[in-house]
Write a structure and sequence with these properties.
Radius of gyration: 36 Å
Helix content: 25-40%
Distance between the termini: 106 Å
Strand content: 35-45%
Number of strands: 10
Number of domains: 2
Largest sheet: 7 strands, antiparallel
Order of helices and strands: HHEHHEEEEEEEEE
Structural class: alpha+beta
Shape: elongated
């Protein structure tokens, strides 16, 4: 009986000598590392500290910010950030849109950099009236694509020749929330040419379309 006990004690003693010895210092380092990994695992997602806009010499900041779903104080989501960038680009008033992330101890700062395009676009006008080459109208128009820096569009055009006229249109893609408003006013001469008809209106009438 004593031999069996001594054999078992010797076996465990030899087995313990084969194991790597971990002193108090090594044990403390390992415990600290495990604690740090647990803290990283439990760490909350990085939040947005601030959103800065630069490069918008004409466009108002709220026009850019309203296209972004991410807001100050929310967790930073890279996929949503790219979608925000595309929404700003799709406004059609910028040549380039970039968003840089600047990490800080208090959260990330988003820097939205835009490059504005030229907002005035002149264009020529020439068309036939009543499908006749003897009734030609010639003129020009001017498109203002970012009126008041609010993505509003003003289009003015005028033409001479057969039944001269002038037209002014205004569009706001964000009026009353996300509803769109497209009013248009067309002025024709008081004494139109005989047989002239346009969009169901004739002569002195001044149509307004929405």
């Amino acid at each position: 009986m004593c031999r069996k006990i001594s054999y078992r004690i010797s076996f465990f003693a030899i087995f313990s000598l084969l194991l790597p010895f971990e002193g108090p210092q090594a044990f403390g380092q390992r415990a600290s590392r495990i604690q740090n990994e647990a803290e990283v695992t439990k760490q909350k997602p990085e939040r947005i500290r601030l959103i800065l806009i630069q490069g918008n010499e004409k466009t108002r900041e709220e026009i850019i910010l309203r296209e972004m779903k991410l807001r100050q104080g929310q967790p930073l989501n890279l996929e949503e950030l790219e979608r925000d960038r595309l929404r700003i680009q799709n406004l059609g008033i910028f040549n380039r849109v970039e968003i840089d992330i600047v990490p800080t101890d208090a959260g990330s700062i988003l820097i939205v950099s835009v490059s504005e395009m030229w907002y005035f676009f002149p264009y020529p006008i020439i068309f036939r009236n009543e499908r006749s080459w003897s009734r030609i109208s010639v003129g020009a128009g001017l498109l203002y694509n970012n009126f008041r820096g609010r993505r509003e569009v003003i289009n003015f055009s005028a033409w001479l020749g057969f039944n001269p006229a002038a037209r002014l249109s205004y569009s706001n893609p964000w009026i009353f929330g996300q509803a769109k408003l497209y009013p248009s006013v067309t002025i024709w001469p008081q004494n139109p040419q005989p047989g002239f008809h346009r969009a169901g209106f004739c002569g002195k009438r001044k149509p307004v379309g929405f």
